Amino acid sequence: MRRFLTRVAPVAVAALALAAPAVPAGAAAAPGLSFRPLHYNINGYNWGGYAATGSGFTSVSAAWTEANATCNSTDDLYAPWVGIDGYGSSTVEQTGVATDCSSGSPVHQAWYEMYPANPVYLSRSSYPVSAGDHITASVTYAGSSKYTLKLTDSSRGWTYTTSKSLSSQRASAEVIIESPTGAYPNFGTLNFTSATVNGSSLGSFGPVALDPSNGAYEARTGALGSGGTSFSETYLRE
User: Fold this and answer.
1) CA distances in angstroms from 144 to 58, 163, 164, 169, 196, listed in the order given
2) 129: Cβ–Cβ under 8 A, 6 or more apart, which residues?
3) Residue 184 confidence (pLDDT) above 80
4) Pairing mode, if any, of strands 120-121 and 134-143?
5) Which residues contact 38 (CB under 8 A, 6 or more apart)?
6) CA 227 to chain centre
7) Is the pTM of this model over 0.90?
8) Average pLDDT for residues 97-122, to the nearest whole number?
9) End-to-end Cα, the chain, rounded Å
10) What residue range is the signal peptide (predicted)?
11) Is 174 a catalytic residue?
12) Which ranges of 119-185 does DSSP label H, i.e. alpha helix?
């Protein structure tokens, strides 16, 4: 049986998110909008996907096809990502692709983040991403507080790898969609595949299933399939 978690953030805190500035076309996502640990998320705790919990996590990986999203408003911003920590801990080591609608049209940009540091957005000219591209992402703990974050767009033929240090708990591992603004573009259905944690299937850890909610469900997380290595995220509303 799946365990689902949704929470409603305080109205005063949620209101702060609505004041986030839009950014011009071609720029990175709005300054200060981090992909944050679950208990920091505002506007309804906008994580969707699965989180394995426990201790001593050393790796997480997954693949997806970048969705052909349609913007509902310039507030829309979301990203599929994989990461370690963030579910019940105050750091996240994560990488993925953000879709930003602040220009009025979807802009895809690869990024990584070692929260609480700000996200780092990769050059769109050196590491381009478009709808329909096949993306593979992984985060690996290398010991001594060091992490290797790797993102590959096999459709475009590039791989980005970086090594960063951060003192962390390694208390969870996730395959997630998240909207820092609390507003999802219409991404249809996004399918995660090849989802593994510590070299085994994500499902073998009995992960918590998460549905993003902003007063009403914004997307629905599907059941794990393919031996616990795949699931879908289906858009419901902004």
Assistant:
1) 12, 12, 11, 12, 22
2) 66, 97, 108, 109, 110, 135, 153, 156
3) yes
4) unpaired
5) 45, 47, 51, 86, 87, 88
6) 22
7) no
8) 96
9) 28
10) 1-27
11) no
12) none
